[in-house]
Amino acid sequence: MRVAIAGAGAVGRSIAAELLENGHEVLLIDKAPTAISVERVPMAEWLLADACEITSLDEAALQRCNVVIAATGDDKVNLVVSLLAKTEYGVPRVVARVNNPKNEWLFNESWGVDVAVSTPRLMSALVEEAVSVGDLVRLLRFSHGDANLVELTLPEESALAGTQVGDVQWPEDTSLVTIIRGTRVLTPSREDSLEAGDELLFVAAQAREEQLEDLLSARRRPDGLV
C-alpha cells in the first residue's frame, strides 16, 4: 500500500516509521526545509513542497496513493489537503489529524475526510475508559455513515454477562468487532460468551449509542433473569 503523509513533524514521522515497519510505501511531504530529516526515516520518500498546492500534489503522484494522511499541526492545512486528495485525485482513504477539538465538526466527508483523529478526544477517551466501567466511550469517528468506534467494559452486574454473542439482540446499525479479554484479542463468533470485565469494541451509528449502552449496562434482576 502506498501512503502519502502531509506533515513531517514528530507525528508524521512516527506514523511513517510504523507504516514502513509494516511493509508499506511512504511519502512524507513538508514545505519547511527544517522538517526534511531524511536520516530520521531513511526508508521513506521525501518531498519538500507545499501539500496545499496542486502542483506539489501532482509531483507527489497522489493519484497512485491508497491512503493520504493529513498530519500537520494546522487544521486549515489538513482540511485543504484532505479535500484535494479526495476530490482532485480520488484517493480511496483520507485520514486527517484534528488539532483543535473545536474544529472537529468540520472534519467530515464534505471536506474529503474519511476518518478524523482528534488527539485530545482520544486522550480524554482513554482516561474515561480507564476509570469508567459500564459507560460507552467514543474512541474514533468515521465520517461515512455517521458511525463511530466505541468501547464499553462490561460491568460485573450486566445482564449480558455469560450470554453468547449470537443470542444477543444487538441494536440496528451496530457491529461487535473485537472482544479484549485480559491480554487476549478475540474476533467474536456467535458461540463466544461475554464475560464481566470484557472490553467490547463496536462500530455503531451515533444514533444507536445510547441504546447500545443501555443494553450492555442493564443490571441483572435479583432472580438472575433479565
UniProtKB/TrEMBL annotation:
Keyword vocabulary terms for this entry: Ion transport, NAD, Potassium, Potassium transport, Transport
Family matches, as Pfam families: TrkA_C, TrkA_N
InterPro entries the record matches: K_uptake_TrkA, NAD(P)-bd_dom_sf, RCK_C, RCK_C_sf, RCK_N, Trk_Ktr_HKT_K-transport
Start and end residues of each RCK N-terminal domain: 1-117
Domain RCK C-terminal, first and last residues per copy: 137-218
Keyword Transit peptide on entry: no
PANTHER family: POTASSIUM CHANNEL PROTEIN 2-RELATED-RELATED, TRK SYSTEM POTASSIUM UPTAKE PROTEIN TRKA
Protein name: Trk system potassium uptake protein TrkA
Organism per entry: Streptomyces violaceorubidus
